[in-house]
Amino acid sequence: MILVDADACPVKEEIYTVAFRHGLPVRLVAGSYLRHPDHPLISMTVAGDAFDAADDVIAEAAAPGSLVITADVPLADRALKAGAQVLTPRGEALTPQNIGGKLATRDLLADLRGGLEGQTLGGPRPFTKSDRSTFAQALERAVRGIKA
Fold it and tell me: Which domain of life does this protein belong to (predicted)?
């Protein structure tokens, strides 16, 4: 199963394409309802707007043999600890070997942002066609690994 942190996921169409090709179920999890294909492989869970509600649903469903799509580093850590594989929407595989560094970087940046109150900071770089292609290739590899 592919579990998608769907609220801000820019690669849902790519996920559907790969899931349909391989016959894998996809579970979208979001704070509120999102439009999605009316297909038996696609399900939608509305987690509500409580803090981390969608993350909690995904973390509880994550297990060996599942693939979690998220840019949320703490959620990725929880999914990895549950035995799931994790991909970011840019196609980066998060693993038990690299998640510690990602968590440390996230915490450092949060501390830095806290000291810069009132200043405008840049966010992540814009999502490109190249990012979309990289994700699609990484997703295909991950799905083949799950099915093997």
Answer: Bacteria
pTM of this prediction exceeds 0.90:
no
Q: Residue 37 is encoded by which pair of tokens?
A: 């294909």
CATH value at residue 66: 3.40.50
Q: What is the pLDDT of residues 45-76, one digit of tens each?
A: 999 888 889 999 999 999 999 999 999 999 99
Domain count, the chain: 1
Rounded Cα distance between 63 and 23, Å, is 18
Decide the pairing of beta strands 85-87 and 93-94. antiparallel
In a domain, 121, yes or no: no
Q: Residue 125: its pLDDT value, please?
A: 76
Range of the domain at 48: 2-110+126-147
Phi, psi torsion values for 93, nearest 5 degrees: -80, 125
CA dist 140 to 2, 39, 59, 98, Å? 12, 20, 22, 21
CA distance 96 to 66: 15
